[in-house]
């Protein structure tokens, strides 16, 4: 119990330091990148390191986040540490997919820049060898827990065509949530129940986003959409999920408005391009509620990590918007926490 109390206290202190909504106000008031960089350094601290441009700043923020996350592991027991290690893998999987796309574009300059700015260059054995084939590169990742998902690509000849990234993402999602569910169950008790509920919500939000994207943006609806769903959702499972997949977009939107996820289409708006932001807002609110009420160290850590991910995403959007010359009112609509206060 002592370690739980110490970790929760530490995280609530970090919440006040790094997740104060006024920080966004300060950033939004800046009209130059130099001014924004100064504010970010004041918020994060000296160990952020030096950077001179947006891409360098993003790399430093990701590396800083990783160090802060790793510090939390010292407060946890073996099973809790394993859960957090698995929770962190999502960022690694996304970075791997980004690098595979770079490899397939066969652009040496882009490949070198990617490696230069990736904090996963060593973790993922990123290579500057532009002659390397994707299967050969992937074969260097045999020690990874998710390697079995990559084996079909490794054993495929490059001449068979480009990687099906949609299928790869679906398989990653299924593996990731199954692993987290299993490890939450091993922890047991009330902690496992809350984690299971939160993971179910995350799966629902993932499936909703996938359904809407497919029905709204693809010219011909994917006949295999049902096979691309991730099982284990909180309310979207079994027949409910099957029915949702079978609805047309207007009917699915009506269902959303009468579901616990109605906040995803707030105000009756149907601008689906904002759905990823709405999804982040919904999960941010859910995590913030747990964070404020819990005295469990692992739950507080998981929720804080998710909220910090959201804040860093907001900072990145602000930097990119300033770089493009956007005005404050244009930036606000893309922020997560702005709509939650």
Task: Summarize it.
The chain is mainly α. It is built from 15 helices and no strands.
Helix count from the secondary structure assignment? 15
Strand proportion: under 5%
First CA to last CA: what distance?
32 Å
- Average of the residue pLDDT scores: 88
What does the largest sheet look like?
none
Order of helices and strands: HHHHHHHHHHHHHHH
* Helix and strand composition category: mainly alpha
Number of strands: 0
- Tell me the Rg in angstroms: 21 Å
- What is the percent of helical residues? 55-70%
The coarse silhouette is: globular
Model regions low in confidence, pLDDT < 50 over at least 5 residues: none
What would you say this structure looks like, in words?
With 341 residues, this protein is mainly alpha-helical. The protein has helices at residues 2-18, 21-29, 33-44, 54-71, 78-105, 108-117, 134-138, 147-154, 165-187, 189-217, 238-246, 249-257, 275-293, 297-324, 328-332. Helix 2 (21-29) runs antiparallel to helix 3 (33-44). The longest helix has 29 residues, at 189-217. The radius of gyration is 21 Å and the shape is globular. The model has no long low-confidence stretch (mean pLDDT 88).
Write out key terms for the chains shown.
mainly alpha, 341 residues, 15 helices
Topology:
Blueprint: H1 2-18, H2 21-29, H3 33-44, H4 54-71, H5 78-105, H6 108-117, H7 134-138, H8 147-154, H9 165-187, H10 189-217, H11 238-246, H12 249-257, H13 275-293, H14 297-324, H15 328-332
